[in-house]
Amino acid sequence: xxxxxxxxxxxxxxxxxxxxxxxxxxxxxxxxxxxxxxxxxxxxxxxxxxxxxxxxxxxxxxxxxxxxxxxxxxxxxxxxxxxxxxxxxxxxxxxxxxxxxxxxxxxxxxxxxxxxxxxxxxxxxxxxxxxxxxxxxxxxxxxxxxxxxxxxxxxxxxxxxxxxxxxxxxxxxxxxxxxxxxxxxxxxxxxxxxxxxxxxxxxxxxxxxxxxxxxxxxxxxxxxxxxxxxxxxxxxxxxxxxxxxxxxxxxxxxxxxxxxxxxxxxxxxxxxxx
Length: 274
Ligand SMILES: [Zn+2]
Known about the structure:
The protein is of the alpha/beta class. The chain has a single domain, classed as Rossmann fold (3-Layer(aba) Sandwich). Helices cover 36% and strands 8% of the residues. Strands 2-1-3-4 form a 4-stranded parallel sheet, with helices on both faces. Helix 2 (47-65) links the parallel strand 1 (28-33) and strand 2 (70-72). The chain is globular. The protein binds zinc ion. Residues 39, 47-48, 167, 172 line the site of zinc ion.
C-alpha cells in the first residue's frame, strides 16, 4: 500500500499503529459495548454494536479535534440477552463474563497509566453499575457508564412519533437508516413492534418496579415500538445530537484533574490480585 493511502486514525485502536498510539498518549479510553440480537425483521443483528461503534468513533473524532486524548477500543459485540434465547442466533453474555471482560480491560489500561474509562453501552439489557462499583474497589481506575441511546432522548418528542425507548423502533431504525442504510431491509418487511401489555397492570406499570420480560411472549416480531415512521433524516439529527453531547463530555472528562470531584480514584492498599 502506498503511503498516500494511509488514513488510520490515531484515536481508533483498531486502526492505529503503535507509533501513532505512543505519540497520541491517550488519557481516556472508550469501550463501546453492544449486543447481538434480532431487531424486528428489518434491522441487522449487530444493530446495537453498529450504533455503539459509530457513536464512539464520531464523538471521539470531534473531541480529539478539540484537543482531547481519548482512544476508542474495539467494541464488545455481546450483551445480556438472557430473555431472547428462543430467537435464532441471538447470543447472550452473562454478568459474570461481562465483569471478567471489563475487569481485564480496566486492569490492562491501568498498567499503562490510563485511569479513565468510558463504557459506552447501546443495549438496553446491559447494566454495569454494580460491576463498575466492584471493579473500582479492586483497581485504581475511574469508570463512567454512558447509555448512548439516552443521549438524544430529549429530542424524541420533537422528532419522533413514538418517544418511548424501545427496541428496533422508530429511533433505532432511523439511526440505522442514517448509519448503514445498505443493511436495513425495506420497511414494509418490518412488523409493527406491537407488545403484549400483559394481565398484571400493577406489576407492569408501577414506577420503580422492574422484572425481565420474556421476549417471545412480549412481541411477535422481536421489536418493541413501531419502526414505520423512521427516516434517515431523523436518524442523522438524533445521531448528531448524541455525538455533540458525548464529544463535550469526553473533553470535560479528559481535561479534568485527578482528585477533582467527582473524579476521585482510591488507591486501596489491598488491591485484588488475579
Ligand atoms: Zn438495539
